[in-house]
Write a structure and sequence with these properties.
alpha+beta; Heme iron utilization protein-like fold; 2 domains; nine-stranded antiparallel beta sheet; 10 helices; globular
Length: 347
C-alpha cells in the first residue's frame, strides 16, 4: 500500500469514527469495505509485529502464556472465553485445542497472516495475537489478561517475528460465495435417509457435501420432525431458560477458520441495544439479534441417541451460533436440555 493510499484510508477511518464513536475495527473494516488486517496495520494506536505463519510451532507455544482471553467471531456473534490453551493437536490442516477452558477447532487451510499487537496505551488495551485469512479477515484473536505470563508472551513474539516485517502484504479479495443450488436439485429423499442414518453429529457435514446441499437448505428440506423453524427470539429465550434452571450448555460460534466452544452454565445475561449478551467471568457471548434471520430446532440421530441443537442463521444462510446441551461423546443427551428445547418448539 502506498503512503497516499494509506493516508486516504486513515482519513476515511477517522471520518467514520467521528460519526460512529466506539466502532470496533471488525465493523469498521466491513463498512469501509477493506481488510481488517489492513486497518490494523495503519492503526496509529498500536504497534504491530508480523509473525511467521509457522502454525504448528506458533500455536504450540500458546500453552506457555497461561491465562488469556480467546476470541472468535462472525458478523453477528462474538465468543470470548478465558483460560489457558491446552496441548495442541494437528492433523493435516485441522488443529484442535480441547480443554475445559479453551476449546477450539482450527481450519488452518484458511489461516494466512498473524500479528502481535501492542497498544500504545497499555492502560486502555492489552496486547493481542491476531490471526487472519488470505483476505485479511480475522479468524481468531488472543488477548492478554492480568494473569497472562507476559515474559512468555514476549519470548513467543520474538521467536516468530517475521524478518521481512516492513514489506507490504497483498491481501486477496474475499472469496465469492457460490450460489446455493435450487431446492429441486437436492435429492430430498437421500438427504432424509442419510440424516436418519447418522451415527455421529460430525458426519453431518459429509452428508451435506455429498449431496451438494447447504446447511440451512437441508433444514428446510428434511422434514419438521428432524428440523423445524422456531419463532424469533428463540436463542434469547433458550439462554434465559438455561440460566434460570441452571442447565449447562455448549455454545458454538465460528467462521471459516475457527470454531470456538463454551461448555458450562450461563448466568449473567444482559440486553444492550441490538445485542444480547452473556457476561460471565470466564465466558462472554455477544449476539446481535437483529442479524438472526432464522432459528431452527435440529435433531440428529447418533450412536448415543438423538442429539438436539438450536441453530441460528443470518440472512445469507451463514451460521451465527449453535447451542447444544452439555455432553461428551459416549453420553446420552441431558433430559433437562431436551425439556428446554421442546418448550421452545411449543412457544
Amino acid at each position: 500500500m502506498t503512503e497516499a493510499v494509506s493516508n486516504a484510508l486513515s482519513d476515511r477511518w477517522a471520518a467514520l469514527a467521528k460519526v460512529k464513536p466506539g466502532l470496533r475495527i471488525y465493523d469498521a473494516a466491513e463498512q469501509l469495505d477493506v481488510a481488517e488486517a489492513r486497518l490494523l496495520r495503519i492503526d496509529p494506536n498500536v504497534r504491530t509485529v508480523r509473525l511467521r505463519p509457522d502454525w504448528a510451532n506458533l500455536l504450540a507455544g500458546l500453552e506457555a502464556l497461561g491465562a488469556v482471553m480467546a476470541l472468535t467471531r462472525n458478523r453477528h456473534a462474538v465468543h470470548e472465553r478465558h483460560g489457558a490453551y491446552p496441548n495442541l493437536s494437528i492433523s493435516g490442516a485441522m488443529g484442535l485445542f480441547v480443554g475445559e477452558e479453551i476449546d477450539l477447532r482450527l481450519f488452518l487451510s484458511q489461516w494466512r497472516h498473524a500479528y502481535a499487537v501492542f497498544p500504545n496505551d497499555v492502560q486502555a488495551r492489552r496486547p493481542s495475537l491476531q490471526f487472519f485469512d488470505a483476505a485479511g479477515r480475522a479468524v481468531h484473536k488472543i488477548h492478554a489478561t492480568p494473569e497472562t505470563n507476559m515474559q512468555a508472551w514476549r519470548a513467543l513474539v520474538d521467536a516468530f517475528a517475521d524478518n521481512d516485517a516492513d514489506a507490504d502484504v497483498d491481501f486477496a479479495p474475499p472469496p465469492v460465495r457460490q450460489p446455493v443450488r435450487a431446492d429441486a436439485q437436492i435429492d430430498a429423499a437421500a438427504l432424509r435417509a442419510g440424516w436418519e442414518s447418522l451415527k455421529d453429529t460430525h458426519d453431518f457435514f459429509g452428508l451435506l457435501k455429498r449431496l451438494g446441499a447447504e446447511r440451512l437448505q437441508a433444514m428446510r428440506l428434511v422434514g419438521e420432525d428432524l428440523a423445524r423453524p422456531l419463532a424469533a427470539g428463540a436463542v434469547r429465550r433458550l439462554l434465559e431458560a438455561s440460566a434460570t434452571w441452571g442447565v449447562p450448555i455448549m455454545v458454538f460460534v465460528g467462521n471459516a477458520g475457527c470454531i470456538q466452544i463454551h461448555t458450562g452454565p450461563v448466568v449473567r445475561l444482559k440486553a444492550t441495544g441490538d445485542w444480547f449478551n452473556v457476561m460471565d467471568p470466564a465466558f462472554n457471548l455477544h449476539l446481535r439479534e437483529t442479524g438472526i434471520a432464522s432459528t431452527w430446532l435440529v435433531r440428529k440421530p447418533t450412536v448415543d441417541g438423538v442429539v438436539t441443537s438450536v441453530e441460528a442463521f443470518d440472512d445469507a444462510g451463514e451460521t451465527v451460533a449453535m447451542l447444544f446441551g452439555k455432553r461428551k461423546p459416549g453420553e446420552s443427551e441431558r433430559g433437562d436440555w431436551r425439556t428446554l428445547t421442546a418448550a421452545l418448539a411449543e412457544s
